[in-house]
Amino acid sequence: LLGAIPPYLRKxxxxxxxxxxxxxxxxxxxxxxxxxxxxxxFFDNFYNTDKLPKRIxxxxxxxxxxxxxxASPFASYACVDTWLTDFRGDLPKIDVPVLVVHGTDDRIxxxxxxxxxxxxxxxxxxxxxxEGGPQEQARGQRGRGLERLWIDLVDRVGRRVPPAPPDHARxxxx
Length: 174
Description:
By secondary structure, the protein is mainly alpha-helical. Helices cover 39% and strands 7% of the residues. The protein is globular, with a radius of gyration of 19 Å.
């Protein structure tokens, strides 16, 4: 899970670690007022461009903006409610190993409200907290790009998977 939204983002009486509901209302209001201005703010925070200005090129930032701008106004507004899905009942049912990679300076999905809580809800989880990292981790941090992330992931998975049987054992005797 890369910058994951679970377990439950909205703050409620039984979820005090969540984010105040007013934040989501403000997001919806900003989208209605000027969704393009909201997209700019969103992607600046997605990439933490004020703290990590050289992490992403203007062209890559603009490509992200263009994809968002291509969405319908309704979809832009309606997506906010999808962020409020409560996954707490589903997470304990996960019965496979899970790797979570999440930036500690994530302004979109705050680390403490999301990823930091997953080890208490999933039996077999490894949490990799990227110190100072933003929401977007695929481009990597301090030279760690997507390729490095995949190499690390394959290495972690490889340590958990038993070695394959010798070739002749897979084909059967004879």
